[in-house]
Amino acid sequence: MSKEKPKEFYHRFLDEAGDTTFWGKGKTPIIGKVEGVSLCFILGMVKFKRPLSEIRSGILSLQNEIENDEYYQDVPSIQKKKEKVGYYFHATDDLPEVREKFYKYIRTIDLSFEAAVGRKIYDVFTKKHNSNEEEFYGDLLSHLLKNKLELGGKLILTIAERGKSTRNINLTNALLKAKKRFKRTRPQKEINTDIVFNIQNPTKEPLLTIPDYLCWAVQRVFERGETRYYNFIEDKISLIVDLYDSENYGGHKNYYNERHKLTSKNKLSPP
What is the pLDDT of residues 191-229, one digit of tens each? Predict the structure, then answer.
């Protein structure tokens, strides 16, 4: 008789880094031309291997510590959050001291992380995604889902809310695409996983702060060639797929893991 799997086995937590913007007004190309517009979009998924309540409690305790620390009392980004919903970790606007504290905490947690990286290539966006940002998001999500379809049971995906991209119709389409990819590569295998989407505002679910931080670390490599954050937490990363890096499709060289790691050479250039 097989041993029953722990509750956390049936949960995944997803957040992203970067944006899905390709054009400005009048369909003007703006990637690499307008500050704040990313060169890629990253969707990451975390699997925790310890009780979720235990990890959630640890994050809340650390957030509370920062919120009440006199050292941070006059920091605008922290004060603004405190006044609205209470302080929460968010890699993009956290102070370096706060990032260091939270990355060190992440290293103490038993988890695994995988991510799909979507380079923002106009030709791919037009032909593959029909110039539709929701389809772009859905394509990345489908790649994260396709290998989860034979786990069995009900898999609950808690996903950071992102406008139209996380509407039920778009997530359902991404799941259908994942199933097609699964059957194409493993026609003899059965799909026996029931995937359920749980859309959450990141300010309401502390566990989403961890995929946020891990996505940000990967983003720094692709956007800036900066590897220090990635190197610090690389033992938590099981897989990163640079989806549209067609030059490295041969031999799956666009797949990165513990044997094939990201380096500063993975820095992207504007299209």
Answer: 999 999 999 999 999 999 999 999 999 999 999 999 999
Contacting residues for 187 by C-beta, under 8 A, at least 6 apart: none
Number of domains into which the chain is organized:
1
As a three-state string, the secondary structure of 111-172 is EEEEEEEEECCHHHHHHHCCCCHHHHHHHHHHHHHHHHCCCCEEEEEEEECCHHHHCHHHHH
Q: What is the DSSP string of 185-253?
A: H-TTS---EEEEEEEE-TTT-GGGHHHHHHHHHHHHHHHH---HHHHHHGGGEEEEEETT-GGGTGGGT
How far, rounded to the nearest angstrom, does the alpha carbon of residue 216 sit from its chain's CA centroid? 8
Contact 211, 90 (CB under 8 A): no
- Structural domain containing residue 152: 7-266
Sequence length of the chain is 271
Q: What is the CATH number of the domain that holds 250?
A: 3.30.420
Give SS3 for 1: coil
Provide the terminal-to-terminal Cα distance of the chain, rounded to the nearest Å.
55
CA-closest candidate to residue 236, choices 96, 147, 146, 108: 108
